[in-house]
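Researcher: Batch entry, complex prediction.
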Amino acid sequence: MTLNAWADIAIGAPLAVFFAMLLGMRAWPRAVVGLSLLSALAVALATWMMALNLPEGGFTSSVPWAVTDDFSVSFGYRLTGLSTAMACVVGTIHLLVQVYSVGYMADDPHKARFFGTLSLFATAMLGIVLSADLAQTFIAWELVGLASYLLIGFWNAKPAAAQAAKKAFIMTRFGDLGLFAGLALMVSRLGDLKIDTVLLAVEANTWEPGFVTAIGLCLLCGIAGKSAQFPLHTWLPDAMEGPTPVSSLLHSATMVAAGVYLFALLQPLFLASEFTATFALGLAVFTALLAATVACVETDMKRVLAWSSISQLSFMLMGLAAGSQVAGFFHLVTHAGFKCLLFLSAGLFIHAAHTGDLLAIGRKVGRSAPVAALGLVVGCVALSGFPGFAGFMSKELVLHAVHEQGMVFYSGALLTSALTAYYAFRLVFLALFDPERESVEAHPSAALKWQQGVVVILAVLTLGIGWTGGDLARHLGASADEAHIHWMSSGVAFAMVALVLGAGLAFVDFGRGGERAGSFAKFPAMHRFFASGWGVDAFWRTFSDVGIAGLTRLALLIDRGAIDRTVDGTGAATKVLGGVAARMQNGRVQLYLSIALGLLATGLLALGAM
Amino acid sequence: MADDLNTYLIISCALFAIGLFGVLLRRNLVAMLIGVELMLNAVIINLVAFAKFSAPEPVTGQVFALFVIGIAAAEAAVGLSIVLAVHKSRGSISVDDLQELAG
Amino acid sequence: MAWLDAHILTIILMCPVVGLGIVMLIHNGKDLLIKQVAAVSSGLSLVLSLRVWALFDASTAELQMVERVAWLPSAGINYIVGVDGLSLAMVLLTGIVFFTGVLTMWELTNRVKEYFAFTMALVAGVFGVFISQDLFFFFLFYELAVLPMYLLIAIWGSTRREFAAMKLTLFLLAGSALLFPALIGLAHYSGLNTFDMTLLAEADTDWGGMGLILFGFIYVGFGVLAGIFPFHTWSPIGHVAAPTAVSMLHAGVLMKLGAYGVLRIGMIILPEAMGSWAPVIAVLALCNILYGAFVALGQTDLKYMIGYSSVSHMGVVMLGLATMTHAGISGAIFQMFAHGIMTALFFSCVGHIYDRTHTREISRLGGLFHTMPRASTLFIIAGMAGIGVPCLASFWAEFLVFVAAVKTWPIIGILAICGLVASALFVLRVIQKTFFGPPLEAWKDLPDISNGMLPARLILAGTLLVFGIIPGLMLTNLDESVRALVAVLAG
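Model: Structure tokens for the complex:
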């Protein structure tokens, strides 16, 4: 089979499932689930086949999609080391999450809709990853947003879920404006948006610097929306209202990484403008810090993980903005593994405890769910950057790259690392080591087997994935040295110090039982500030309530008060004039005749005078 | 008064003005009808006078006058019967009571 | 078959006319028979418009399937019909909306005969406008399309129907009052003394200042029907008062007549004047897009919301035309088509909901997704098309227009892109408030769209999807005609 055919399968198979669901297969949910699993398997296979059979120099194919004289859009595949590696991540995680969902959604009456939409997501996500044309990327990007909207709002009878879905769509839409504007600016110079064309134009250095910076900032806006960076990040924690497999697949492992992927893809464009690169780096460091502090005080298990995702996405962007594609992308890969694991374990906990509250989980479930506990521990160890585990390896590369960009950024990143260790171990201690745990009997079900199996597989993957850096670097076309970790360096030492400080503080706060508030609670003002997400959410709410609502009221006022009143006023004026005219028609024939004669006489006199 | 065209025209004009006055200002339908008759007679005087002083064929004017007299008779008949009908249905022949067409 | 193909446009025009004639002959009580006649006549016109689509030769900008009959040659008036790339999509659009509109009104019981008679008169006018190539007939059909609207709204409408019908009619007639002198002016000042649009367009007339004035008359006159800011207030109130299928025809097809008139008469015959007017048109279009979206956001009535969304979307059409580029004009025509289908779907879903709940107040609805999954899904599809989600036809339209706009006027273009968020805001708000949330007790047992009533909606949703996934279907047909137009506009 050719690469093109594999790519067709990867994109087409899930799409077929979605349409089958839409066109009436909802009546047979089991059939949809079966089809969906089959297509997920095909997708995973196809993505790995593409990665393994990738020829030297990549592979590109495209067919025209929408052609005009001014510019044209094509549909096609551009398979490179980067895109196939990303496709493998997506394909693999997608398959695992689908299998997990078989158990998770076993009793849901609408599971056909769930699996169909999940398949739509796979198509869209791979559409971004394999795309050869930025316009196609944009299209898939929007479709991913649509799938995300539908999945967050899957339990739309819950007002919170419906609200969160809308928020996610709108916030990412804000970012997409920037992306769209950036693409439109580019196409006004280029004629098409093929990635090769764009990269060539950047390489040729034909655009004036201001233009490059403008485009970079516009695209960065889109990336901030999708990858939940400040100030457009507030939708991601709320998105946890969706089913847990969705949180795992879309809102941590793959979809939110789309922004990072776009950055990696167009890295030369961003790096071409020093301002854009530095701005992106600064934004990433700031977001990482912000999100990590919030994760330290959050009490809902999935929301902790969501804030952690934001923070880790910032780490990826840091690596990329600092100039190292390998570091940033490697972190994307490892994060996809361990964060997916964490979410799926969280799903097991939440399923057992019927709540997402961290303290309640610790009290009700804790270690009585061994597989979940295993997943949580492995995931958290990887997340916190324990040497040898996945998170450590990639984060170390990122920190190394950031170090070269200046001490401000580096110290911010190190501080975030320490906070990461703190909240990761806080999660472990709170969930697993609650001394007052009530013993609740476990009630195993057949469906649970699916979920537990996936968690075990992911745990194994997470343990191993940290050592694949060299292979990944080679696949990306870089030398394996770029993924090499200098164990005996000051950088590793600093990272160790951060880890020990963070983990140690977590142990002091939560590891020994007793009061479960933590060090942050000792400073109530700061605690409140962190718990409110640094007030960003409040800012957006004000923006919506005052800004948008104000504009709406103004528009309504103009419409009803000015325009429509003028229109109706014209009507009323006509009526008044008509009334005046009607008064002359009083039925007195003699008056009419007098007027007629008067007019005739005046006319004759006027004629005579001429 | 001299026997020339102007004399006749002045008389006719005065007659027409009296008729018009009657039509415009009287409220009684019969009086208005009489006003119309006066105006018609003014026209007849005009026709005959012009015929006498300026037409090569003197008979034409007189014939026209006869026609108008005939029409005036018909008009009076129709007009008076309308007035009669109005009087029957309304009990009045004052135009003040006949303002159905007010807008 | 050959005879049919040669006269296909006239036959399409005759479908509703003959249908009208037959309906008039049917006895008043036989509602089903009347509906069947209407369905056959509309179905036939849909099939024939598909046939026109198939016969169309995309490789030329010339008029095709032309028929000419001398009518009043001394006055320069002839019956000339023909299609090119610009009108092809409009003919299909009319066919689809006509057919689905008739199906949507299948449950009508009040004065069935008169309703379908007026509808068919209206559609005959619309078809006539889209295929006429003679100014006189263009105007004649235009008036024919506008007038039945008054009766359709005043008799079968709801909320403040007499007022709405009167307002709508007066507005449109005011537009006509500007158009009539303009059209006569075109024939007169060209010096050709003809109403033949092709001749007028090809003539090398130096219009000078008169061209600017005539274009202004044409732009405002037709623009009223296209809902240009600030002459748009008749449109939402008309949508609200109109019965379901009339709203479909009104927003789906009738508003397109306005934009089509500006394109077909204004831009083609007076290209230089268009060049001078373009900035004004672009700014007003921007007002439409942003302002319409914000007013829509403030509405509490579903139909008002959709009405103002139409105002916003018609702004995209006008913006596309104002760019005077290949991509922009193609996008504008694509948007006319996509928006027509989309609003038709919107209104047919809202109609279903209103017929069952007897309210359109957004605050009184909620949780309908669980009681009416079909109606909700279809509404959401229409909504997604409205906010430019890819793989639905209007995405391409908006994409082409906005990119072209950014190229021509970067600031206006980028501001117009901001309209995408505003439209997302109001559509998602309505979806959240109306369909999502816990199912309300009051609406729990209401029936969903029945199997019999589903096909009409499926045709509309399917059309959105097909053109969204294969935009080439539309763009190839537009290609040559738009290229020729752009060449004329460039002088």
